[in-house]
Design goal:
single chain, 308 residues, alpha/beta, Rossmann fold, 15 helices, binds adenosine-5'-triphosphate, binds magnesium ion
Length: 308
């Protein structure tokens, strides 16, 4: 089964799609079978970054059951190391308001893709869909710019993702879940307090669920005078949300990105020596190591061969 990686952010326009498209391409160039899924319903544009203007099929065709299999909406870039893309274009009211069952069908079908890595662009914001798609993955990446407003949005995004994670650790029919869903919260502490009040032991259960939630931080459009104090940020996140956010790396502000956009090519393909491309390569190398940790070490058919 593929390792899944999702990318999210509180604020829009922070570079999620640019990062994920380049990460997908670099992983494909390094020998991985990769599928990039554009779940940015309403704002899908990953296909444009690869110069694919009118995809024959998109995710909407699968969601509206115009096609039976998710495989029918996969586009393969044979000239880009066989990189696969599920374009997200063509959003309709139906696709924007997916039901729980539709969401489950989509997530189940992603698990059937015959690839090593699935990269999911969940889009910006904190809707239930966005948070659920973000949390679905084995590895989560969250992006911020080095500006205070972006960092605040990043913090709010993480806070809501954390609360969603806590909620999903209880059965939806349970007393705790029913009570928590009725309330709105301004901090994780409030959630844990109410959970414990509703059912003794719930706090510990929730904290246990959070132990495995380690979203990775990327600071994009980094400039010399806009440095983020990652230690302080991590301390604050740890204190108030009870989670760690390890750094995956920084990507500098780079004019070459605009040129790549105009050329409809990922920057790592057009200008591999640009500073942003080099930063992307370092991030890819780290991600590659993580993928190995998540991947079952030997595929079943290889296991059979080994035992003969
Ligand atoms: N490091 C960078 N240097 C210069 N420009 C950048 C950098 N990163 C991203 N950009 C530019 O910022 C804009 C937004 O990037 P992108 O579309 O990838 O963001 P996004 O987070 O996916 O946005 P949305 O939330 O709307 O989907 C694009 O024009 C992109 O080329
Ligand atoms: Mg985007």
């Amino acid at each position: 089964m593929a390792v899944t990686i999702s990318i999210g952010s509180g604020k829009g326009g922070v570079g999620k799609t640019m990062i994920l498209c380049n990460l997908a391409l670099l992983l494909a160039k390094r020998g991985k079978k990769v599928c990039l899924v554009d779940l940015d319903i309403g704002g899908a544009d990953a296909h444009l970054l690869f110069g694919l203007f009118n995809p024959k099929h998109s995710l909407a065709d699968f969601l509206t059951r115009k096609v039976d299999s998710i495989q029918d909406v996969v586009h393969t870039f044979y000239s880009l190391n066989g990189l696969q893309l599920i374009p997200g274009s063509g959003s309709t009211l139906q696709t924007a308001n997916m039901t729980f069952q539709e969401k489950q069908r989509l997530l189940r079908s992603l698990n059937t893709l015959d690839v090593d890595v699935i990269l999911i662009d969940v889009g910006a914001g904190t809707s239930y869909h966005t948070l659920d798609f973000f949390m679905f993955s084995d590895i989560q990446i969250c992006v911020t710019l080095p500006e205070p407003t972006s960092i605040m949005d990043f913090y709010s995004f993480l806070q809501l993702a954390t609360i969603r994670k806590v909620l999903s650790s209880f059965l939806s029919s349970s007393q705790v879940s029913t009570t928590l869903k009725k309330q709105s919260f301004s901090s994780l502490a409030e959630v844990l307090e109410l959970a414990e009040k509703t059912q003794p032991g719930a706090k510990e259960k929730a904290q246990k669920a959070l132990r495995y939630f380690h979203p990775l931080l990327v600071v994009n459009r980094d400039t010399t005078n806009g440095k983020v104090n990652k230690n302080k940020l991590n301390q604050m996140i740890n204190k108030y949300l009870g989670i760690e956010v390890p750094s995956l790396g920084n990507i500098p502000e780079d004019k070459a990105i605009a040129d790549a956009l105009k050329a409809y090519m990922p920057i790592c393909e057009l200008s591999p020596n640009a500073s942003a491309s080099k930063a992307m390569l370092q991030i890819t190398e780290k991600i590659e190591k993580l993928i190995e940790l998540f991947r079952p070490s030997i595929k079943p058919e290889e296991q059979k061969k080994e035992s003969i």
